[in-house]
């Protein structure tokens, strides 16, 4: 009897693994970020319009539930007002405080109806670039900042996605940092994302 149970368990596990491998999906995604900085010390800046792009995978756990890890390059920050009283720089109307991250969200994905899913979960974000760009519409104007913002940010991501039968999907998402951008400053990243992707 024990041998039969063991054999049945192995067969069931093998079948489940095979189904999971058949339904596993991997793809790419990208879109636009409407990013900003919130908090008591943020001084209410305007949003920065930028981009995000990355890789996505989906591991089905049950019929309507999956785990979706991602690796995304996300350009964030805000648009700030700069007054150049000494005419040191040729400043555009829009001066950007640029905070760019590699984000690693780990999301629970629940299918509400066929193709339409709700996603939410933690995000582990690693700062890769921090600079002031007083000419964001041109190649110049970049002032790199060293030892400024914190290198790591813990946050969350949540949103909706609709995936078509051919693998194309459209997506809207809200991301928010829970940890401060600077240790002693009450300011936090957030962004609204809209984009498209394709899974194979």
UniProtKB/TrEMBL annotation:
Protein keywords: Signal
Presence of keyword Signal: yes
Annotated signal sequence range: 1-20
Record flagged with keyword Nucleotide-binding: no
Domain Outer membrane protein beta-barrel: start-end pairs: 20-182
Protein name: Outer membrane protein with beta-barrel domain
């Amino acid at each position: 009897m024990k041998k039969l149970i063991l054999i049945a368990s192995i067969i069931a596990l093998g079948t489940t693994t095979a189904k999971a491998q058949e339904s596993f999906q991997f793809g790419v995604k990208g879109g636009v970020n409407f990013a900003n900085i919130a908090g008591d010390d943020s001084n209410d800046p305007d949003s920065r319009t930028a981009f995000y792009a990355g890789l996505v995978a989906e591991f089905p756990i049950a019929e309507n539930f999956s785990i979706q890890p991602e690796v995304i390059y996300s350009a964030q920050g805000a648009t700030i007002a700069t007054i150049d009283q000494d005419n040191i720089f040729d400043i555009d109307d829009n001066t950007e405080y640029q905070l760019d991250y590699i984000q690693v969200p780990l999301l629970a994905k629940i299918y509400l109806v066929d193709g339409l899913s709700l996603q939410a979960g933690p995000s582990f974000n690693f700062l890769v670039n921090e600079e002031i760009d007083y000419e964001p519409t041109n190649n110049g104007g970049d002032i790199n900042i060293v030892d400024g913002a914190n290198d790591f940010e813990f946050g969350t991501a949540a949103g909706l996605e609709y995936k078509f039968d051919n693998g194309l999907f459209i997506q809207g998402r809200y991301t928010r940092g829970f940890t401060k951008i600077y240790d002693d400053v009450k300011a936090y990243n957030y962004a609204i994302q809209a984009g498209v992707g394709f899974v194979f």
